[in-house]
Design brief:
There is one protein chain. The chain is an alpha/beta fold and about 575 residues long. Among the domains are: about 5-45 and about 315-425, Aspartate Aminotransferase, domain 1, CATH 3.90.1150.10; about 440-565, Sufe protein. Chain: A, CATH 3.90.1010. About 45% of the residues lie in helices and about 15% in strands. It is built from 22 helices and 17 strands. Strands 2-8-7-6-5-3-4 form a seven-stranded mixed beta sheet, with helices on both faces. Strand 5 (about 180-190), helix 9 and strand 6 (about 215) form a beta-alpha-beta unit. The chain is globular. Bound molecules: 4'-deoxy-4'-aminopyridoxal-5'-phosphate (PMP). 4'-deoxy-4'-aminopyridoxal-5'-phosphate binds near residues 142, 188, 217, 220 and 240. The site of 4'-deoxy-4'-aminopyridoxal-5'-phosphate has 13 residues, from helix 6.
Length: about 575
Amino acid sequence: MKPFEPNTFRQHFPLIVNQENLDHLLNTAILTNERLEQTGLVYFDNGATTQKPACVIESYHDFYQAKNANVHRASHGLSAKATAAFEQARETVAHFINANSSKEIIWTKGTTESINLLAATLGKTILQPGDEIFIAVSEHHANIVPWQLIAAQTGAVIKTLPLDANGRIDLNQVEQLLTHKAKIVCCSHVSNVVAKINPISDIIAKAKTVGALTVIDGAQAIAHLPVDVQALDCDFYVFSAHKMYGPTGVGVLYGKQAILEAMPPYQSGGEMIKTVSFTEQTTFNELPFKFEAGTPNIAGVICFAQGIQFIRQYDSAEISAYEQQLTQYCYQALQQIPGVTFIVEQAPDITVIAFTINDHHNHDIASSLDSYGIALRSGHHCAMPLMDYLNISGCLRVSLAPYNTIAEIDYFINVLKKILKQETSVNTTNLEVSATVESDAIVEKFSNIKSWDARHREIMLLGKKLERLDPCYRNQHTLIHGCESLAWVKASTSVTGHYHFQADSDAKIIRGLLVIVLAAFNNKTKQQIQSVDVNSYFESLGLLQHLSPSRGNGALAIVDKIKALSCA
Ligand code: PMP
């Protein structure tokens, strides 16, 4: 076993900034974008997906270079080689989570597909009208919506499990709520936002007493906690490869063999078939193939095993201790920043820290951090019911990995303080409010701005120029769909048929984008509006390549809404 040493560990991840450069960055007083171009990225979005070690990347290359063939089908040597590696990967995963047999490991595209498979197949077999499906309020949409769809089809009822003050599923409520009507209990081992370890052993034990099946979403836990499915005694445990150093497009459905055997197939075709006939009943393959229709992600599965082997070289207790150290350090540093509120009480159990900052929209902070090369997540984190439950519209989420360092956290905290200071000083400056900004003036201004952080600052300043929309106009009719922050646009026309648009958003960055978009469309006729070439306008401003997908899509959603309003 290799000793875990963060700086050496880090060297395995090509996409991660190397420590020397970061030290250099920290020693320079000015945090500019040019500096970042030399240093790379501070990646704090590991809960969304981890970076990949070089051995995983190489293994992908190696598969296509030396082993590429379809599995299980052909009688030639290359296929045998690919099949051996593919099935060895299944053994590796079975061993990793202590499954009783590799027959209990089904390859899927990811956690989401694993849950969809379960909802579809269990829905057909065990759910009757009035049966109850229990879901914790903190679940990811992937562990809510498939159950909602199947409940609608079967007449089953969704019931929610509330949290205790610390954000864990409240066991007392589990005790009280679960009765013999409960057929399926679904919860995450650890929520992707709350980051507390749920008392799943107790929940599983309780579910057994009422005869309910248990589905544990291990998407976040798998990279941080030892998972022993036999000790847990859960019926199903699901996770994705990409959240633990493996590739995207590969996931695992672990299920107890007897239950999987009793379940009908999910999708059909390919290796899941034993015999097909037009006169006799079509028959299905044994486990695990019964649930694997079509050609699987062979290269991905093999790479995933490489990722597991990579991480298993290290002492997991040492990695865990380091993760705890990073988390505590970051949590305590954030605690010192005025206005920071953690979404639940007490420090998280894994490396995920979710918080809001008073008077600052989470998207504004995240996009400002991005302009300093710090990648973290903002928004609802695919957990809208949790946001409602906590009575927040969204939050920021730092999620760390063992290749992150204390120096990166220091950099993040320094940048965050700097952004908050800048925002506060802009807030207190009494900027002139003007509703009309010409698009030519914006293009002219942006053409003189070279760096993305300066351009980002300019968008934020433009946002200050947007007159606020009367709250009575912020409604379902004016709401812009497809924009992650709340945003509204309203149209009026002059006697000459020229349109005037007014808009607003709860995020400053979106208000800035609104000014930019309105400048291109205001005081134009319907025909002129439809013929605006928005892509070249954004291109000339150097915007789309920098805006994150949600912000970028937000800008396009604003345009779509404006075009629709002019057609209405
Ligand atoms: N559940 C949880 C707790 C998650 O964090 C995620 C990913 N954010 C998912 C489910 C869905 O995973 P995937 O997109 O890999 O299917």
